[in-house]
Amino acid sequence: MPKGIPKRPSAHDRIDLLTSKLDDLAEVMQLLVDHVKIPKSQELSETPHSEVPVETSQNPSFETVQGLVPTKWKEIINRYLGNVEASMESTTGGHYVLTVYMPEGIDRRSGEAKKYSKDHSTGLIRYTSELADVEHWCELISKNIRKTFPNWELNK
After folding, report:
1. Biggest distance spanned by C-alpha atoms of the chain
2. For a pLDDT cut of 90, what percent of the chain falls above it?
3. Top-confidence residue, 14 or 49
4. Of 96, 98, 116, nearest to 107 (Cα)?
5. Which of 88, 96, 122, 142 has the fewest beta carbons under 10 Å from its own?
6. Torsion over CA of 54, 65, 104 and 98, rounded to 10 degrees?
7. Who contacts 127 (Cβ-Cβ below 8 Å, separation ≥6)?
8. Contacts 24+ apart (CB under 8 A), 127-135
């Protein structure tokens, strides 16, 4: 090999270096996990299971798994829409999908869609601004309901 050109580390040496760096990273991550405290705002509440729409043979793709909704989220939902059903699912991107089922007597759909499931709105809630996103989404739902049902009053 010509002088002045450094010798490339062997595959074994590169694997050892990578393993060492991954061990260091795992140690740092474990320290972070050990010191993270979950704030009270993240406590979970569960919507009663009996309120979950039932899957029917006419609509086999309807999701029936009830997700847990954080207490703070549920408070915001109740403030804008009253005591309604809601569920939450995590996405692969680290965000959440919030589904809010319309209050009793509110159905914005027409035709066949009314037969098979309950009217609902689904929105993406970003991990970094979850409370603001939930509030914004509920505000939009409330405005939308009032467009179709101007005399709608909040049931708490």
Report:
1. 86
2. 9
3. 14
4. 116
5. 122
6. -150
7. 94, 95, 96
8. 127/94, 127/95, 127/96, 130/70, 130/73, 130/96, 131/41, 131/72, 131/73, 131/76, 134/73, 134/76, 134/77, 134/98, 135/76, 135/80
Domain ranges of the chain: 9-38, 41-50+64-148
Assigned superfamily of 41-50+64-148: Porphobilinogen deaminase, C-terminal domain (3.30.160.40)
Task: Choose among 79, 77, 99: nearest CA to 89.
Answer: 99
* The residue count for the chain: 156
Give pLDDT tens digits for 83-113. 888 988 888 777 888 999 887 778 877 777 6
Which of 98, 92, 83 lies closest to 131, judged by CA? 98
